[in-house]
Each structure stands twice: as C-alpha cells, then as structure tokens.
Amino acid sequence: MRKNVYLISSILLIVFITFISLKETFSLASKFVSFFDKIVHTCAYIVLTFFWCRSLMYLKPDYKLKKNIIIVSLFLFLYGIIIEVLQSKFTLNRVGEYQDILANVLGIFLGALIFRYIRKLELNYNKGLFF
Question: Distance between CA 56 and CA 110 in Å, rounded?
Fold first, then answer.
C-alpha cells in the first residue's frame, strides 16, 4: 500500500510541477520574485527528491540506499534541465535560467539529506534503539 501511495504521489508531483513550469504566466521581473522563485524551486525539489527516494525504496527494496539516492538525483537533475530548456523554447514569457537549475540541485541535495536522515531514524526505531 505504501509503495503505491508514494509512487502515485511522486508521479502527480512531477505532472503538477511540469504543468506549473510550462504554464504561461504574467511577467513579474523583480528581485523579490526572482529570489522567491529560487526558494520555490528548492522546496519543490526537496519534496520531489524525498517522494521519489521513498518510491524507489519500496519499488526496489534490494537496491542500497545510496544507489536509490543517486538514481533519483540524476533523474531529477535531468528533469530540471529538460524543464528549463522547454521553458525557454516553448513558452512565450518564461525563460530557462541556470540559477533555477542551481536551486533545483540544492533542493535535490537537501531532499536526499532529509530522506537519509529520516530513513536512519526509521531503521534505528525498528531496531529498538529508541525508548
């Protein structure tokens, strides 16, 4: 059941982020909006990384934790680059920015750290290391 919830959630997140990323918007070019946009990118990729790591953990339980994180990180990194290219080529008022890719990478890194930390807590709890 859990693997289905995480997989469905992960797929829905990708679809939602793709839709939002490629949807035409009004141009609000200010430094505040630009900075806020980077925070949104980082947070979105933290959530994406966490959910995709959980999905892969349940789908491929024989994979080591590090392998799951590497697979998810590479997938999301490439996904982020593809979205930025699509924004610059197929939308009228959106541009692909390397700063967005850097924010995505930061989100992937933080999401992987959070996933590893929570997974370690779960394993320690299952071993009875908590009172």
Answer: 17
DSSP 91-129: -SS----HHHHHHHHHHHHHHHHHHHHHHHHHHHHHTT-
The DSSP 8-state label assigned to residue 97 in this structure reads -
Instruction: State the average pLDDT over residues 90-110.
Output: 90
Query: Residue written as tokens 């693997």?
Result: 3
Interaxial angle between packed helices 31-59 and 98-126, expressed in degrees from 0 to 180 and rounded to the nearest 10: 40
Question: In what helix (H) or strand (E) does residue 92 lie, and over which residues does it extend?
Answer: none
Q: What is the pLDDT of residues 11-43, one digit of tens each?
A: 999 999 999 888 876 655 544 557 888 999 999
With contact defined as beta carbons under 8 Å apart, do 57 and 119 qualify?
yes
Residue pLDDT, tens place only, 44-98: 999 999 999 999 988 888 888 898 999 999 999 999 999 999 988 888 777 778 8
Q: Which residues of 55-72 are buried (b: 16+ CB within 10 A; e: fewer)?
A: bbbeeeeeeebeebbeeb
Kindly give, in sequence order, each residue whose CB lies less than 8 Å from that of residue 63, ignoring residues fewer than 6 positions away: 56, 57, 71
Given the structure tokens 């934790």, which residue do they identify? Answer: 65
